[in-house]
C-alpha cells in the first residue's frame, strides 16, 4: 500500500477517538479545494441535485425556499413537482406543514427528526464534503452517523454519493452505477395489503414473558408495515389462532399471504381451517422475494435483541421495538413512513383492491381455487398462486446490519449471528409443494405488478430460493 493510503487509514482510525468536527451549512470548501479535482466536484454537485430530486420524500430546493420564507401554500407546493396533483396535494401539504418549521433564528427544522436542522438542499453536497475533509477523509458511513446528529435531511445515500466525489479517496473518479437513483419502492405496483409476508420467528432462546417461545411476524410488501402476534408454540392450533387474530383485525384480507420459513402444507391447512371457520377468502402466494423476506426478519431479530431484556420481560415491548417503532419512522426503502403508506390515498383503493383480487382469482385454474363447503353452503375460499408467475416479483437487495431506517446508531449493536436459523422451531422447512391435488394442474397466472403502476419494472432479475437454486426471470427489472 502506498504512503498516502496508509496515512488515510491511520487518520480514519484516529478519527474514532478524536472529536468530530461538524461542518457548518455554507462553510466554504475553498481551503480544501486546491487538493481536489474541481471538475469532479462540479460534476458531483450537479449529479447530487439531480439525484435528490429523484428521491421521493426529500424536500427540493424550491420547497425548502417556500418553507423558509413561510410562503408555502397548496398552490405553490403543487407547482414544485409534477408528481403532485389535486388528489394528493392536501395530504402532502399537511405533512410538510406538520413536519417542518422555521425557528426563531430562521433555521428550518424537522419536527419528526428530533428537531434537527434541515440543510438547504443545494448546500448538502458541500456540507458533506466539508465534513469529510475536515475529518481526515472520514469514511462516509461514519461521517453519516455524525451528520445525522445535527442534520435532518442528510441520508446515508447522500453521504455515500457526495463522498464518492472526493478525488483523493476515489482517484479514478468512478461511481458505483447502482448508486444512481436507486431510491424507489420496488413494490409500489402492489396495493397496500395485496401481499403480506408471514413467518414464525423465534427471537430468543428463552420465551418472552416466560410464555411465548415464538412470534408470528407479518409484513406488508407495499408499505413494509409490520404486525406481530405472540405464539406459545408452533402447533397448528396456536398458529391458526394467531393468524386468525391478525386477519380478522385487518381492514381487508390480503390478496396473498407469502412465507419462506413456514411449511406450505401446514400453512395451507391452517388457512383452510381459518377460511372455513370464518368464511374468509384467503390466497397463498408463491413469490420468492427471499431477500425481501430475509431483510425483514433479520431486521426484526436485530431490533428485538437490541432491547433483549425489556423484550423478554414484556410482549408489548417486543411490539414497540419490532413493529410500532418501525411502522412510524421514515423508511429509506420506500421513502415514506410505513404507517402512512398502509393507509395511503390511492384513489378508489377499496374498489381497485377487490377488482384486482377478482381478476387474479379469475385467471386461476379451477384446481387452484378451493371452495370450502359445509352442508352444501359455501364457507370460504382458498386460492393458490402459481409458482412460475410469482417469480415475476422483484426482490430487494440484501441489507446487512444497516437496515432500512436510520433512527439508531449501528456501532454498539450485538452482532447478528448468520448461522442462527431464522426460526429454530422444529417445523421449519423450506417451501414445499402445495397439496398435490392442487399442484397438479397449476396454471400460469399473471400477477406481476400492474405495468402502469410500476414503470420501474424492466430488467432481468435473478432470484435465489431457499435451496440456493437460482432462478432467472425473463422480464422483470428495475430501473436504476
Ligand atoms: Zn476523501
Strand order of the largest sheet: 6-5-4-7
The total number of structural domains is 2
| CATH C-level label of the largest domain | Alpha Beta
- Please tell me the CATH architecture of the largest domain by its name: 2-Layer Sandwich
Largest sheet: 4 strands, mixed
Q: What percent strand?
A: 5-15%
Specify the number of helices: 18
The unreliable regions are 177-183, 399-480
Distance between the termini: 34 Å
Whole-angstrom Rg: 25 Å
Structure classification: alpha+beta
Could you give me the name of the CATH homologous superfamily of the largest domain? Ribonuclease H-like superfamily/Ribonuclease H
The chain-level mean pLDDT equals 76
Written as H for each helix and E for each strand, in order along the chain, the element string is HHHHHHEEEHHHEEEHEHEHHHHHEEHHEE
CATH topology of the largest domain: Nucleotidyltransferase, domain 5
What level of helicity do the residues show? Answer: 25-40%
Number of strands: 12
Can you walk through the features of this model?
Residues 421-435 have a biased composition (Polar residues). By secondary structure, the chain is α+β, with helices and mostly antiparallel strands. The chain has 2 domains: 3-179, no CATH class; 195-473, Ribonuclease H-like superfamily/Ribonuclease H (Nucleotidyltransferase, domain 5). 38% of the residues lie in helices and 12% in strands. The protein is built from 18 helices and 12 strands. A hairpin with a 5-residue loop joins strand 1 (100-102) and strand 2. The protein is elongated and about 85 Å long. Zinc ion binds at residues 132, 137, 166, 168-169.
Amino acid at each position: 500500500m502506498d504512503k498516502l493510503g496508509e496515512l488515510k487509514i491511520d487518520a480514519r482510525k484516529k478519527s474514532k477517538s478524536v472529536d468530530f468536527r461538524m461542518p457548518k451549512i455554507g462553510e466554504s470548501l475553498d481551503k480544501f479545494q486546491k487538493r481536489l479535482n474541481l471538475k469532479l466536484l462540479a460534476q458531483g454537485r450537479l449529479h447530487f441535485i439531480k439525484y435528490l430530486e429523484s428521491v421521493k420524500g426529500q424536500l427540493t430546493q424550491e420547497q425548502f425556499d417556500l418553507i423558509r420564507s413561510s410562503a408555502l401554500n397548496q398552490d405553490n407546493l403543487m407547482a414544485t413537482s409534477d408528481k403532485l396533483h389535486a388528489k394528493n396535494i392536501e395530504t402532502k401539504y399537511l405533512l410538510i406543514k406538520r413536519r417542518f418549521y422555521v425557528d426563531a433564528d430562521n433555521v428550518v427544522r424537522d419536527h419528526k427528526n428530533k428537531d434537527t436542522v434541515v440543510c438547504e438542499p443545494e448546500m448538502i453536497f458541500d456540507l458533506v464534503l466539508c465534513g469529510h475533509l475536515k475529518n481526515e477523509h472520514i469514511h462516509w458511513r461514519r461521517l453519516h452517523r455524525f451528520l445525522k446528529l445535527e442534520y435532518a435531511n442528510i441520508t446515508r445515500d447522500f453521504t455515500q454519493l457526495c463522498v464518492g466525489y472526493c478525488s483523493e479517496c476515489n482517484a479514478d473518479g468512478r461511481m458505483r452505477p447502482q448508486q444512481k437513483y436507486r431510491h424507489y419502492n420496488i413494490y409500489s405496483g402492489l396495493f397496500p395489503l395485496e401481499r403480506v409476508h408471514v413467518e414464525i420467528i423465534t427471537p430468543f432462546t428463552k420465551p418472552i414473558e416466560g410464555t411465548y417461545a415464538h412470534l408470528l411476524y407479518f409484513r406488508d410488501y407495499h408499505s413494509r408495515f409490520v404486525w406481530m402476534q405472540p405464539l406459545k408454540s408452533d402447533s397448528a392450533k396456536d398458529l391458526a389462532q394467531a393468524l386468525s387474530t391478525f386477519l380478522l383485525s385487518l381492514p381487508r384480507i390480503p390478496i396473498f399471504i407469502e412465507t419462506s420459513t413456514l411449511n406450505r402444507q401446514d400453512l395451507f391447512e391452517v388457512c383452510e381451517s381459518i377460511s372455513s371457520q370464518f368464511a374468509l377468502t384467503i390466497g397463498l402466494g408463491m413469490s420468492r422475494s427471499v431477500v425481501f423476506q430475509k431483510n425483514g426478519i433479520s431486521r426484526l431479530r436485530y431490533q428485538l435483541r437490541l432491547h433483549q431484556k425489556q423484550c423478554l420481560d414484556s410482549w408489548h415491548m417486543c411490539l414497540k421495538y419490532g413493529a410500532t417503532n418501525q411502522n412510524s419512522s421514515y423508511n429509506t426503502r420506500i421513502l415514506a413512513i410505513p404507517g402512512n403508506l398502509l393507509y395511503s390515498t390511492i384513489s378508489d383503493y377499496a374498489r381497485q383492491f377487490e377488482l384486482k383480487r377478482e381478476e387474479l382469482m379469475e385467471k386461476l385454474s379451477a384446481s387452484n381455487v378451493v371452495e370450502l363447503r359445509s352442508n352444501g353452503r359455501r364457507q370460504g375460499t382458498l386460492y393458490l398462486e402459481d409458482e412460475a408467475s410469482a417469480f415475476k416479483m422483484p426482490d430487494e437487495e440484501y441489507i446487512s446490519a444497516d437496515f432500512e431506517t436510520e433512527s439508531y446508531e449501528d456501532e454498539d449493536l450485538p452482532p447478528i449471528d448468520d448461522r442462527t436459523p431464522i426460526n429454530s422451531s422444529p417445523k421449519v422447512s423450506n417451501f414445499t409443494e402445495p397439496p398435490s391435488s392442487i399442484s397438479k394442474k397449476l396454471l400460469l397466472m399473471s400477477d406481476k405488478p400492474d405495468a402502469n403502476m410500476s414503470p420501474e419494472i424492466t430488467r432481468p432479475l435473478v432470484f435465489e430460493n431457499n435451496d440456493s437454486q437460482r432462478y432467472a426471470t425473463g422480464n422483470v427489472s428495475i430501473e436504476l
